[in-house]
Each structure stands twice: as C-alpha cells, then as structure tokens.
Amino acid sequence: MPQGSVTPYDVEGTVDYEATMHKFGIEPISEEARKRIIDHAGSLHPLISRNIYFGQRDLKWLLDEYDKGNEFYIYTGIAPSGSMTIAHLIPFMMAKWLQEKYDVDVLIQIPDEEKYLIKKDPKLTLEKTHELAYDDALNIMALGFNQKKTRIFLDTEYAGTLYRQAVRVSKYITFSIIKDAFGFSNEANIGSIFYTSMQAVPAFLKSVEAKKNVPCLIPLGLDQDVHFRVARNAIEKLGYYKPAIIHSKFMPSLKGGAKMSSSDPDNTIYLADDEATVSKKVNKAITGQQSTIELQKKYGGDPEKCSVCQYYKFIFEPDDNKLMKIFEGERKGTLLAGEHKADLAKKINEFLASHRAKKEHLRSKVDDFMLKD
Amino acid sequence: MPQGSVTPYDVEGTVDYEATMHKFGIEPISEEARKRIIDHAGSLHPLISRNIYFGQRDLKWLLDEYDKGNEFYIYTGIAPSGSMTIAHLIPFMMAKWLQEKYDVDVLIQIPDEEKYLIKKDPKLTLEKTHELAYDDALNIMALGFNQKKTRIFLDTEYAGTLYRQAVRVSKYITFSIIKDAFGFSNEANIGSIFYTSMQAVPAFLKSVEAKKNVPCLIPLGLDQDVHFRVARNAIEKLGYYKPAIIHSKFMPSLKGGAKMSSSDPDNTIYLADDEATVSKKVNKAITGQQSTIELQKKYGGDPEKCSVCQYYKFIFEPDDNKLMKIFEGERKGTLLAGEHKADLAKKINEFLASHRAKKEHLRSKVDDFMLKD
Lengths: 373, 373
What we know:
By secondary structure, chain A is of the alpha/beta class. Helix content of chain A is 51%, strand content 10%. The longest helix of chain A is centred in the C-terminal third of the chain and has 26 residues, at 337-362.
C-alpha cells in the first residue's frame, strides 16, 4: 500500500483528510447541517462541533427525510481482533448520542469473521473472535444504549438472515471493484473478497424487513468508507436507499501516529487496561511541548501535535471552555508535561472505572441486546 | 472457455473423459472396488456396472474405512435454475441406492444462490430459485429416500449453519485458485467467487457436528469435480477427511450433444413434461441409424451414437439382458427408428407418471426432510 493510504486493513503514515475527501467524493459536514442538527437535537455533540466527525455522504438528504417524517436508523459496528481500545468507542458514542436525540433504532454489526479472514495470525480463530465479539458487545452496551431500540449481532450467529441479502448485494460487485478499492491481490482469500457484502447488509436490512425504504445513517471511521463506496451502488441497484454516512478522523496514537492501533499496545489505551498501565502509557505519551521545562515555559507547545491534548479533544474533555484552557496552557507553556499527563491519566482511569462497573452490571443482560437466527 | 472444457458453468463440445481424468488426477473405478461393492451390497447398480459412474477419488480409502466399521455419509445436490430434467436424477438415484445398500445418511444441498449469482437472466431472482428449489426437493424425495436418514437444505435457509463453516474453508482458497479452476475473470461477481466455499461445507459438516471425523462420499457429475478439486485441500487443512468422490458421465442430449442441458428444452426431457411432449421430443431424437429403412436393415446402426439407446443405458432399461438386445437390434438393423423411439417414449412416460404420483403423495411431507436454521 502507498504511504498515506486509508483502507480498513492498512492506515499508514499521516492521513491527509482533505486529499482523501477530494479523492473519494466525501463532502464536509456543512454549517447548515450542523445548524439543522442543533435544531433537532438542541445541541451538537463535541465529536461533531470539534470536527472529529468531519465528512459526510448524503447527510442533507437524510435530514430532509427526517424533516419529512421519514425516520432513519443508525448502523455501525466493530470487527473483533483484540481487546477494544478507547478509539473504538467513537462511532458508538456518536450512535448513542444520535439515538438519544433522535429517538431512533441502532443496529450494530460485530463481524466476527472479518479479521479471521484478513489476518494471518493463527491464534485468531473463529472461537477467539467469537469470544472477543461478546466482550465488544458488552463494551458497547456499557455506553448506555436504549435496549428497546438497539440490537447487536455477530455475523456467524445471524448469517441465516444476512447471507441471503449479502448474496443479493454481491451480484453487483466484481472482483475488479474489490481489487481497486481494497488493494487486494489475486492471492486474497475468497472469504475476504466476499466479506464486504456482509458489511453492506445492515445498511438496507431494515428496508428489507419493513418492505419499504427506510433511511440509514452510518457513523464510521474514515477507513471504513471504502466498504460503502463499493456497496452504495450495489444497494441502489437492489432498489434501496443508499445509506448516508458521517466520517470521523482517527484518534491518534499516544506516540502521535496517524491512528491508535490495537496492534501497537504500548501506545494504545485498552478498555481493559488497569490504572497503573494507563498511567504508565500516558506518562510516555508524546506531547507538543519543548524538550525542557525552560524552553516550554519560554516558547510553549503545539496542542495539534500533543497526543494528550488530542485525547482531551476526542473524548476526555467534553466542556469546550475547559478544553480551550488546556489548549491555551499547552500553547503558552503554562501547562507542564508532567501534570498535563497525570491529569489525563486520572480522567481516563475515572472513565474506565465507571465503564467497567457499567459493563459488569450489564453482563447478565447481553441476550436482551443480541439478534440471533 | 476452450472447446471440450468441463466446468459447472460450461460443458462444451465432446467430452474426452480419459483426457479429463488424466488432467485432473481422477482414477477409474477399479474392478477390485466394484467387487468390494458387490460384497457389501449384494449387487452393482447399473450406473456403476455400465461405467456411467466411471471415475473416483479416494474410493478405496472410503471402502477401507467402511470395512473398519467407520460408517460414511453421502452428500450430493443440485443447483436450481429451471425445471429438473431426467439427467439431474442420476446422482440422486446413485445416492438412493447407496443409502439402501449401506444404510447410511444422505445430505442433499440445494444451493438456491448459485445460479442466481452465475446467470445473467434477470428473471432468475432468489424468489424464483427458492420456488424451484422446493420443486427439486420434491423430485428428489420422490426417488424414495429413507426419511429418517435423509436431510435436504437450501443454502439461504441453512446459512446460519453453513456460513460459519464456509468462512473457515474460504480462508484457504485464493482468487488465483478460483480463476484457474473455474475460468473466472476479474469481472466475476464476488458472490460467485465465494460460492464454492458453500458447496464445500456439507462434505465435512457431519464431522463438525459429530466432533470427530466422519468419511463422506460424493456422487457427482464430472462438471462438479472442480468444486472439490479446490475444496479438498482446504478441507484437509481444517483437519477433516477429504471427501471421496465418484464421477458420472453426462447423459447425452436427445440430439446427441455432450450433455443434456436444461437450457436446450427441445432436446431435454423435463420431469414436468407431459406424455405428448415426451413423445414429440423423443420422436425427433437422433439415433445411430442409417438415413433410410433399407440402409438400416442392410448396415445397422451405432448404439453409442444413438441417444435412444443411451437413454435406455443410463436410466430406462435396468435389465442388462434387455439392454443388450436393444443394442444388438440397433447394431444389426433389426430395430427400426420408429418403434425404437416409441418404446422409449412409453418407458419414459411410465416412469414420469409414477414419479409424479410419488411426488404428489409426498407434497405434505416436505418439512420432514428439510433442514432449516
């Protein structure tokens, strides 16, 4: 893959969001759209107001449909390959807020075959991804979804419903399209080639079930857009609405890379990390600060290059005024790296402690959320 | 595809069975194997004794396992794309006889997605193949399978079980392999590329369910061998026995082509054809006879080139002595085309009338045979 490429299987180097949007026809979330969401929801979630959700496809159409009384549903998901990280929570936080504000259904796919098919790791068996999938389901539930309006499924447990629809989509997707979109070679296995059809299904499944077209909104990380670039045309050929999409940027690695990656454990916060581990990892994080305290006090730092500031911006400081103060402290050099990191570690640990408690509380309620054949 | 090629999606020209066996490593059914089957079964089904089932993979191994007390099961199937023809009955007749003689389970796959994915015909929707699949199931049941030991399923109704196993197989099959085996181009749709994984599953599904290796025997038409050339290695990599296979020749078209094809209705007998239609089609059949009665009486004909003789040989004259007489009559010129055809039409119509009666009788019992998620 070339440097700076963005696919689900490879996010490399620095991501040029502008160039990616231009290349693939993703539009920014307009001021008008933001205003309309404020009209509907009473406020804007920080993930949108801070432009972490930065791009969209057909969002105006979706809001038009909503204004006409045509209720949408939300579809998002996660492919299990290891313990969930805090970065993995972003689409679910977005989905949860949208559900709360718009009072809509949420459909969550956990494709437990995807990483099995893609990764070469012999330890990542289908039994292992199945186990991880149930832990993911609990992590998602712990965000506080409305049980009555939220359903989660594993592909291998819901294939009786999904496969038939995936077959329909797959008829309109050639290997040439997959090869171009995902950069696969002829040596890719045929399960990985077919897989995108399974990911497409939940984007129109409610329409199949309702026997009428139901709009769908997908909050996703930019690397997942490719699945729907491929599927949206196929879905339209089947006679369903193309799903609307909102795209988020990648939460940076603690060392400042393009994307927090679960395959780089030292620079990633897992939901399962204990307090000492979080403190240790955050303490080694790259900040935007100068090399010495003296230089930092004199010249200040750059919050855009500071992974600590970015963690506050992405998740851990929802209050815009407080975030502004943190960014200012970094910029002016009044906020020193040591306390800056210690504060963040404390916030993360508070969040994780509360998250774990919610998770334990919900452990007996998983079946209430799951869809199975 | 080159002339004389043999894949499920294209059987062209004259089939050179010897060359195909040599090319793909298919062995003949040996005299020793025939003797062992007679030892087990008390007789040999005409489809084997007449060398219509002519080839095999691992048959000796399967019979060895059986002699060790390791019971096998039989797997075969049919992909619905139109009304079933008499040629489609061959693997089921074989399976039914083997079940009777060996008292074994039979698993029958009706992949109702396959032709939907392969054919360009817009009328062949999944709804249509589903309807055809249930008619196929009835036609199969009408052959007299033991209900307690026979299960039939449609892929779209059993995907909750099949997809998980297909994913496991598919990890070991690359697009390169599919491209070489089936002659697909990069413009093949990704459902058709994945499909062979679904066809592979029933060859080891009983082993998955029993949690121990169970031998499997697949009676199939030669054009289907390619699926298992691809899948046998993948199945072995998963730790299961490779299925044994016996291969049948193609029942010729009434006009004498390599294979009776459901897409050439005038030269094909459908199970749904009425008496007048059968008589009309058979009356136009190509025989191996001379152009005039005088020449035929003088020089005789060639039963190998006579589709009427071949129909007797394949299905409609199980008695070897009677078949020999028919072949002799053709060879010596004593059997004239008119009565030759009229006799066959009568036999076919008797068979179809009885078949239809059995089918009607079983119409209320379909659910007893079907496997669904």
